[in-house]
Amino acid sequence: MVGIKDVAKKAGVSVTTVSRVMNNRGYIGDQTRKKVEDAIKELNYSPNQIARSLQSNQSYIFGLIVPEIRHPFFSEMVHWIEYYASLINYKIIICNSVNDKEKESGYLKMLKEHRADGVIMCSHTLETDVYKKLTIPIVSFDRIISTDIPYVASDNYHGGELATQHLIKKGCKRLLHIAGPLNFEMLSNRRYDAFQVVCSRHQVEWDVLEGANINLTFEDNYRFVEEKLGDNLINYDGVFCSNDLIAYALSMYAKKNKINVPDDLKIVGYDYNSFTKTLQSPRLTTIKQPIETLAKQLVYSLQKQIENKGKRGADRSIYDVELIEGDTT
Amino acid sequence: MVGIKDVAKKAGVSVTTVSRVMNNRGYIGDQTRKKVEDAIKELNYSPNQIARSLQSNQSYIFGLIVPEIRHPFFSEMVHWIEYYASLINYKIIICNSVNDKEKESGYLKMLKEHRADGVIMCSHTLETDVYKKLTIPIVSFDRIISTDIPYVASDNYHGGELATQHLIKKGCKRLLHIAGPLNFEMLSNRRYDAFQVVCSRHQVEWDVLEGANINLTFEDNYRFVEEKLGDNLINYDGVFCSNDLIAYALSMYAKKNKINVPDDLKIVGYDYNSFTKTLQSPRLTTIKQPIETLAKQLVYSLQKQIENKGKRGADRSIYDVELIEGDTT
């Protein structure tokens, strides 16, 4: 491998001079600079970032743990996190927890060993204690881990309100909410809170069906609807789903079972990800999360912590959501 | 930050002893081992992987450059690459080139500086010379860079044959192929080669429409169909599209313009990614690429090169594809 010494030899200068040129430090004559630059080019030399990061104690790497990168919500999230991190010269190591506790803690250990400068947590399978003990900067998406760990989320409560109010405004009298898993204190549970409050306020009957973890395939979502809801679907005239993939599976289930959407059954989804945007028939009525903005804030919140030497702040960033009206309500 | 010296002090042993315990080298008494392990746990110490990789000259990091991680084909590819890399203890730094030359070469430079042990190239905006000059192991997806750089691809030629034969078997007489960009020597161009050959063999009239780079949004794909094809669509009774997103946009365009699919127009796509699998109406007839297998082979081919100390082999791995019959033919 080509080292800085080889460059110095080739250019006929000292290692210190090469280092000065590369770091733009101290006075260097134009001719010397050119000799060094030519030698770097000719030898195809690139400075050893690992050695540098050992000196500076900064790796310029963020860890990013997501539950399922194939899910369109998270693949968009990853896209934008990578984009905003690259603007501040950070690289991303992605880790796919597939909602597996062991994998998630294994990744955290690995990121620590690699001296990642910080971690963006979008997967949440562990108890909050584990994250609290981490000695590197961390920012969480959609989960409050502790008062001193910043989080970023969309306004899940408002999303729940918008969806429920919309269904009621459209005439629904018996509502169902298909929620995500409610075991952890996820901020997405606020959608359910708002759903209950709005239903009660309008004296509308309601039920909740607790969802499994994210189902990626259509078959899994369809089976969930069929097995967990099935014939009971007839008891409801409106369903607020915790994500668009399940909303789509529900609309297909209704179609197959001759339940007319939106006349007899109204459906509202959540996310407005690339799948939803591409889908034309039916166009789902859904709640749009500002994915790009969320990603940007996750990156900047982590950067801020790092600049403050890991001192955790109480940064809480909540971004508003929006109702997108489609054909299912 | 906690260092090995702190562990040694806490355990009341020498740094060498701590190192021996951590690396399982030399004789260590049970009691000493326990003292060291307790100290590691208590201090929440993790070995510095950066320092280690500087010693071993291996970073256990692969670079992965994709053109667009939000595209369902590539988000699945990333998922499986990450999965198979993690099985051999490699981490992935993902880079999104968004088909931008400058970004792509910037990322290559960065990966070299970070001493990535190898690079998986799924984005191809640069001339082959750039890749050939890279001094780190590299494996390419869907592009032949040079005889000494291994590549992995699905059998694009066979895919083109299957699609075209299927359309002809279904009675089509005037076929169109919507290709990807044909400027680079991409292996996906073999689909077009096969299309021409099969059409000629069956004396079927054909045309080709050269596509733009991957369009991610429905609007972009729809606009492409509308502007580049538009009224000319009436001249064809079958279209073989280079990916499923454009096939879907085409089917929606036909619907809007009262062209009956499949009676008056038959459509075959390519990829069978998560979008296609989820989509129920219409179910696209398409060519299935074995995404998981491709990802696995990319990882293993790179690993092989690294084990052979960067000596590039002529590994060429071509995997078969499959016709999935849906409602559009």
UniProtKB/TrEMBL annotation, chains A, B:
<keyword id="KW-0678">Repressor</keyword>
<feature type="domain" description="HTH lacI-type">
    <location>
        <begin position="2"/>
        <end position="56"/>
    </location>
</feature>
<dbReference type="InterPro" id="IPR010982">
    <property type="entry name" value="Lambda_DNA-bd_dom_sf"/>
</dbReference>
<dbReference type="Pfam" id="PF13377">
    <property type="entry name" value="Peripla_BP_3"/>
</dbReference>
<dbReference type="InterPro" id="IPR000843">
    <property type="entry name" value="HTH_LacI"/>
</dbReference>
<protein>
    <submittedName>
        <fullName>LacI family DNA-binding transcriptional regulator</fullName>
    </submittedName>
</protein>
<dbReference type="InterPro" id="IPR028082">
    <property type="entry name" value="Peripla_BP_I"/>
</dbReference>
<keyword id="KW-0804">Transcription</keyword>
<keyword id="KW-0805">Transcription regulation</keyword>
<keyword id="KW-0238">DNA-binding</keyword>
<dbReference type="Pfam" id="PF00356">
    <property type="entry name" value="LacI"/>
</dbReference>
<dbReference type="InterPro" id="IPR046335">
    <property type="entry name" value="LacI/GalR-like_sensor"/>
</dbReference>
<dbReference type="GO" id="GO:0003677">
    <property type="term" value="F:DNA binding"/>
</dbReference>
